[in-house]
């Protein structure tokens, strides 16, 4: 067996060990349920060795879709211990016990990519998913579109980049003094210096309480939730999802009404996230109109969304020059940079997978170099949740599903 074969087998073993029967947990202990965009990325990895099971991953995720079209961030299919907040805190009543917010719609793109591996075999399964994927896209455009055409998040957990510096200014404006008492579980599993702070968690729980008091009604949340930050990552991933969904709909003969309009709106929206002061796509607080001043892994998803930008190409070249294991979750020269703390500096291979797919599709010459760096990182350090971008030190959960999937689908 070559080294590649050995690492590949290890990646398959991780995904199989995290399989809970129809869905894959991110990692044992820390995250014992089905997470939305983790499952989408895991499905890409699973599709490399079991196409049927990859479809099932997406189908199980979509089984949790609410009547509104929203697809939850977490599905609590089976009782588990060791995670906060669980279903009793969220108090939602979708078809499967769940949280009340969504996550970036990578699953739409994953459905297309899985289908393309064997279009004849996947046709019926994709056809059955089409109305659900469409309803989710419509929900995003109805409830998460700002007045400039960008997608915003109402909770840092919805963005997927929980404690990114992107939210700092918007969070500083919120008084969380009414937050209920709660007990964190995450710091029982991993080093607390690598996790969000207590202040971050107070805001997460406070925003959860806001949604719960609105009984998770979208219109009421829009009225009372003070946290609303437009995010390049969410906007790029949604734009990409709509493009892929349009392609699927054309190929399979489904209704395409409004889809071109959505694409036009989002294409305009992403341009409003260009911050000339830092020469990068950046987050913007919708209430103050202020940019966060953050170059993040989300900034580099422009190519994934089909958007080239010479300024981001320059950023990419710089990122490859200043860190051994790019693309970091946050710019190494940024004032909030912390190489250990979660979404404030570490490199997340799963994000590099999405960035790399975009680079490859747009023929950006740096893609092979980026892939080689992540390949070396995973082959030598294993499948942890995230890594120090300078020395590659692994951190967070071990045997992580979307990290293993990144190896299988892209890095190997
Ligand atoms: C992290 O977020 C969860 C909440 O969703 C948490 O910290 O409790 C994030 O990295 C998120 O992007 C990811 O989907 C989740 C599971 O891996 O963990």
UniProtKB/TrEMBL annotation:
GO biological process terms held by the UniProt record: oligosaccharide metabolic process; protein N-linked glycosylation
Domain Mannosylglycerate hydrolase MGH1-like glycoside hydrolase: 31-403
One MF annotation (Gene Ontology) recorded for this entry: Glc3Man9GlcNAc2 oligosaccharide glucosidase activity
PANTHER family in alphabetical order: ALPHA,ALPHA-TREHALASE, MANNOSYL-OLIGOSACCHARIDE GLUCOSIDASE
Official protein name in the record: Mannosylglycerate hydrolase MGH1-like glycoside hydrolase domain-containing protein
